[in-house]
């Protein structure tokens, strides 16, 4: 097999983060394009790839990233951002021009099934040629198998391929079959035909982990069929014995990965509409602006390593160690205004890495055994961080330091801090107290 030099965009996302190690396993050389190299610092395969910093909106930054590349994977999408179709178009044009100038032999683009002829598509589908209603879902393992195989397609192959699983289902079929595989009680489904796409997306935003800004264009897509019109890819990337993975088996495999804490990437790890790269709260002077802080410290009768295990386990199923109702209410309020809320959870119950989502936070920095810094991704009139530290404090003891920081944006930001600060003693004080207690309880067991 010919060894290719591959560039992967979207390597911090759900598909890209799984594709990279599979390309490496096939012997290909991989370079990853990312806006911030730190976001790939902690992934298991970081030492085996080249990392190039660049931005698809900045054509000049793509030149070095594409130099010497044989195959470029384009796995990025701006869904959820205002005017995402235009943003996607400009990014694709920049990338195509830079790839042509660099002499890239092939671009592999992952979109979605195209609408049937004459089927008008939503803005989301027009931007990516994606569709839905009856749908032909495909297991992520088969998607990755096809993407890896695309690296070595014959040079004269230049076309799109439909890839899909063996089952053609409706969304109702999928919900019922998922419930059956997951061992849930049979769900009662009540049609609500009067709901508009706007109201439907708002409901999706409230009851699922998908924010309203993402849900709206997805809901707009549901009226369109998403079935494959051909299976020509099998000529070049043969199906495995037994054929592609069916829906029920794909669900079983996914649930097993979650149960065994072996999830490689989660959809929430992909880049969401987040704050720009601003100065960190530890930067001197913070550009002359205001920075409100809430600082808590506690002596802990446990070693720093024990305290750190509790710190790294925050969020998700473990919760936030204080006033669960307050955290839940804050998450629901965020959902009501189109934010991410608390439903994203965490990828692994005990381990975190830079760049991944943690409920309505993003992991911004980790110094193992010492520091966890989170940047808020809820809707706020400003920027917010939460720092959790474990420090030695004598034999068998440690000191827990906790700092919440908020950089307000305008008068609304100052008013927000004034409104929530009375609750900090309960929320942040309780958090510091219970994290310390959790570490001490672990020692006493």
Tell me about this structure.
34% of the residues lie in helices and 16% in strands. It is an alpha/beta fold and 445 residues long. Strands 8-13-12-11-10-9 form a six-stranded antiparallel sheet. Helix 6 packs across helix 9 (247-259). The longest helix has 21 residues, at 424-444. It starts with a strand and ends with a helix.
List the helices and strands and how they pair.
Elements (H helix, E strand, L loop, with lengths): L4 E5 L6 H10 L3 E6 L15 E4 L5 H8 L4 E4 L9 H19 L3 E4 L13 H6 L5 E2 L4 H11 L18 E2 H11 L15 H11 L4 H9 L26 H13 L32 E9 L3 H9 L11 H13 L20 E2 L2 E7 L3 E6 L5 E11 L5 E11 L1 H11 L3 H21 L1
Parallel strand pairs: 1-2, 1-4, 2-3, 4-5
Antiparallel strand pairs: 6-7, 8-13, 9-10, 10-11, 11-12, 12-13
Tally of helical runs:
13
**Basic shape:** globular
Report the count of strand segments: 13
Structural class: alpha/beta
Helix-strand topology string:
EHEEHEHEHEHEHHHHEHHEEEEEHH
Strand content: 15-25%
Radius of gyration: 23 Å
**Low-confidence sequence ranges:** 128-132, 272-288
Mean residue pLDDT = 85
Q: How many angstroms separate the termini?
A: 55 Å
Helical content (DSSP H or I, runs of 4+): 25-40%
Strand ordering within the main sheet? 8-13-12-11-10-9
Major sheet attributes: 6 strands, antiparallel
Features:
six-stranded antiparallel β-sheet; 13 strands
Give a brief description.
The protein is an alpha/beta fold and 445 residues long. The chain has helices at 16-25, 59-66, 84-102, 123-128, 140-150, 171-181, 197-207, 212-220, 247-259, 304-312, 324-336, 410-420, 424-444, and strands at residues 5-9, 29-34, 50-53, 71-74, 106-109, 134-135, 169-170, 292-300, 357-358, 361-367, 371-376, 382-392, 398-408. It is globular, with a radius of gyration of 23 Å.
């Amino acid at each position: 097999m010919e060894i290719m030099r591959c560039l992967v965009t979207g390597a911090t996302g759900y598909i890209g983060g799984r594709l990279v190690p599979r390309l490496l396993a096939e012997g290909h050389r991989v370079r990853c394009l990312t806006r911030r190299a730190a976001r790939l610092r902690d992934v298991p395969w970081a030492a085996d790839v080249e990392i190039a910093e660049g931005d698809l909106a900045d054509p000049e930054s793509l030149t070095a990233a594409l130099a010497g590349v044989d195959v470029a994977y384009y796995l990025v999408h701006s869904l959820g951002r205002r005017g995402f179709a235009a943003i996607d178009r400009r990014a694709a044009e920049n990338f195509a021009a830079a790839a042509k100038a660099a002499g890239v032999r092939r671009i592999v683009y992952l979109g979605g099934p195209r609408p049937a002829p004459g089927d008008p598509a939503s803005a989301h589908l027009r931007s990516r040629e994606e569709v839905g209603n009856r749908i032909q879902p495909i297991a992520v393992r088969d998607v990755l198998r096809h993407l890896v195989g695309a690296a070595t397609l014959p040079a004269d192959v230049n076309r799109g391929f439909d890839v899909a699983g063996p089952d053609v289902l409706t969304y109702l079929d999928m919900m019922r079959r998922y419930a059956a595989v997951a061992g849930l009680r049979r769900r009662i489904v009540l049609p609500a035909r009067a709901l508009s796409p706007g109201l439907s997306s708002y409901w999706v935003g409230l009851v699922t982990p998908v924010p309203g800004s993402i849900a709206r264009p997805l809901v707009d897509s549901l009226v369109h069929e998403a079935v494959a019109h051909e299976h020509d890819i099998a000529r070049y990337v043969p199906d495995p014995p037994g054929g592609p993975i069916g829906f029920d088996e794909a669900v079983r495999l996914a649930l097993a990965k979650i149960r065994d804490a072996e999830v490689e990437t989660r959809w929430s790890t992909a880049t969401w509409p987040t704050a720009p790269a601003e100065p960190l709260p530890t930067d001197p002077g913070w550009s002359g602006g205001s920075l409100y802080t809430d600082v808590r410290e506690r002596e802990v009768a446990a070693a720093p390593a024990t305290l750190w295990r509790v710190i790294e386990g925050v969020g998700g199923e473990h919760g936030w160690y204080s006033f669960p109702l307050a955290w839940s209410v804050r998450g629901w309020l965020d959902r009501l205004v189109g934010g991410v809320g608390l439903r994203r959870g965490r990828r692994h119950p005990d381990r975190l890495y830079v760049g991944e989502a943690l409920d309505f936070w993003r992991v911004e920095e980790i110094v193992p055994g010492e520091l966890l810094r989170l940047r808020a991704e809820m809707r706020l009139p400003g920027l917010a961080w939460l720092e959790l530290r474990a420090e030695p404090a004598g034999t068998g003891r440690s000191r827990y330091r906790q700092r919440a920081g908020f950089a307000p944006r305008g008068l609304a930001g100052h008013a927000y801090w004034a409104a929530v600060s009375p609750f900090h003693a309960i929320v942040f004080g309780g958090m510091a107290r219970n994290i310390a207690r959790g570490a001490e309880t672990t020692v006493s067991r």
